[in-house]
Specification:
The protein contains ten helices and twelve strands. With 305 residues, the protein is of the alpha+beta class. It has two domains: 102 residues, Jelly Rolls, CATH 2.60.120.10; 186 residues, Hypothetical protein af1432 (Orthogonal Bundle), CATH 1.10.3210.10. The strands form three sheets. It has a six-stranded antiparallel sheet, covered by helices on one side. The longest helix has 21 residues.
């Protein structure tokens, strides 16, 4: 119900609001005026939500916890939040994570429009990534698996919140550039010819172009992972032949996780190998294909895989 005379909008409980649903997160736009938005979030158990600095962004950001319990992760600090807790930034200067310990709800108020990031930009990129993986013979939850394993490994390695947020997006979108690879190459069940292999390798470059063309800071940061996740520790990877510390840490993480998932996942043309065999293959690649610290940390997570 809207009153023009008094300038208010009344929405009773149960009435429809503009909502975006992602795995583990429901987001609803409650109110918007003059660039300020009030957004309701429901974050489901064990899932994460993040906010971070963006170029040319100077705005108040306020969060009020309605229910549940969440970890507030800022840099290397963790604080427990529960109903009634709140915080604000003017603006946020470092990436912040909220991780739900149980199903939780909070209100996010932002002095600049942000809802379209959920409803159009980031969500459309995630939808594109999922469609690419399905076309490549994976199941629809492949991107989610890569992200969850990457985040688990990133936390074990003690990554700061900024790198964790970049990892969150970059791991999910790691193969988005395959949308520009011809279907006859992407779907070929046999060994690729040298020419076809060169086309396939370009998906890393295509992915960087797609994310940078959005001109969204979060996605441009994630492009580092998308562009480098096939680089190898000894320099034998592609597209640039980077080695060692030349490779961004998030890309090193996705390189290990993506290799493990590729080996253990059933595809149309082959059955996935056993977890133990895949871990043994990763062990063989330590110091050549994979960063030793990253790969060893992943092997230490074997019981959680």
């Amino acid at each position: 119900m809207i009153s023009k005379e008094f300038g208010f909008s009344l929405r009773k409980k149960g009435q429809t609001i503009e909502t975006v649903r992602q795995k583990g997160l429901d987001v609803g736009l409650l109110a918007s005026y003059g660039g300020t938005e009030v957004i309701h979030h429901k974050l489901y158990e064990d899932h994460k939500w993040a906010m971070g600095p963006t170029d040319e962004w100077n705005s108040l950001e306020f969060i009020y916890v309605l229910s549940g319990k969440m970890k507030f992760i800022y840099g290397n600090e963790e604080i427990l939040l529960s109903a009634g807790d709140h915080f604000h930034c003017e603006p946020v200067k470092e990436d912040i994570f909220l991780q739900a310990i149980n199903d939780s709800e909070f209100i996010y108020v932002c002095g600049q429009p942000i809802f379209h990031y959920y409803s159009h930009n980031i969500q459309s990129m995630k939808d594109l990534a999922i469609s690419v993986e399905e076309k490549d013979g994976y199941t629809s939850d492949h991107c989610q698996r890569i992200m969850e394993l990457s985040m688990m490994l990133g936390k074990k390695l003690g990554l700061a919140s900024k790198d964790l947020y970049t990892l969150n997006l970059g791991s999910f979108l790691h193969d988005v550039g395959k949308i520009r690879v011809p279907d006859h190459v992407l779907n070929k069940p046999d060994k690729l010819t040298p020419e076809e292999w060169e086309l396939m390798k370009k998906h890393t470059i295509y992915g960087v172009e797609i994310l940078e063309d959005t001109n969204i800071g979060y996605l441009k940061d994630a492009a580092k992972i998308v562009g480098q996740h096939h680089e190898r520790y000894d320099g034998s990877g592609y597209p640039f032949g980077l080695k060692g510390d030349e490779i961004y840490i998030g890309a090193k993480i996705v390189a290990v996780v993506d290799s493990y998932d590729a080996m253990t996942t059933d595809r149309v043309y082959r059955k996935g190998m056993a977890k133990e065999d895949a871990l043994e293959e990763l062990q063989k690649g330590i110091g050549s294909l994979y960063d030793p610290d990253v790969a060893k940390a992943f092997l230490e997570l074997a019981d959680q895989l």
